[in-house]
């Protein structure tokens, strides 16, 4: 059975902190993979609309970047695999 590490957050506004967090989670994803674990970042909020580039970069480098609706619809499938 795989082990998962979940991080959940919500950003109502844009700024440098969410961008820094996204970059840090790219590094965290690499470390978690080395431990044979799966990192799932659940993030949501209107703030991401102004930070599309940071979210796009994170999505390209983190296996699972989901919003809350996506998590609700896919969690069972993730746990089955």
Question: How would you describe the overall organization of this protein?
Answer:
This protein has 81 residues and is an alpha/beta fold. It has a domain at 1-12 and 39-80. It is 52% helix and 23% strand. It has 3 helices and 3 strands, in the order βαβαβα. The protein has helices at residues 16-34, 52-61, 68-80, and strands at 3-10, 37-44, 64-66. A 3-stranded parallel β-sheet has the order 1-2-3.
In a nutshell, what does this entry contain?
Residues 4-74 form the Restriction endonuclease type II DpnII-like domain. This is Restriction endonuclease type II DpnII-like domain-containing protein. By secondary structure, the protein is an alpha/beta fold.
What key phrases describe this protein's structure?
3-stranded parallel beta sheet; alpha/beta; 81 residues
Put simply, the count of helices is 3
- Secondary structure category: alpha/beta
Oligomeric grouping of the chains: single chain
Helix % is 40-55%
The secondary-structure element order is EHEHEH
Strand order of the largest sheet: 1-2-3
Mean pLDDT: 91
**Separation, N- and C-terminal Cα atoms:** 9 Å
* Strand residue percentage: 15-25%
Shape: globular
Number of strands: 3
Indicate the low-confidence ranges by residue numbers: none
Mind describing the biggest β-sheet? Answer: 3 strands, parallel
Radius of gyration: 13 Å
GO molecular function: DNA binding; type II site-specific deoxyribonuclease activity
InterPro entries: Restrct_endonuc_II_DpnII-like
Protein name: Restriction endonuclease type II DpnII-like domain-containing protein
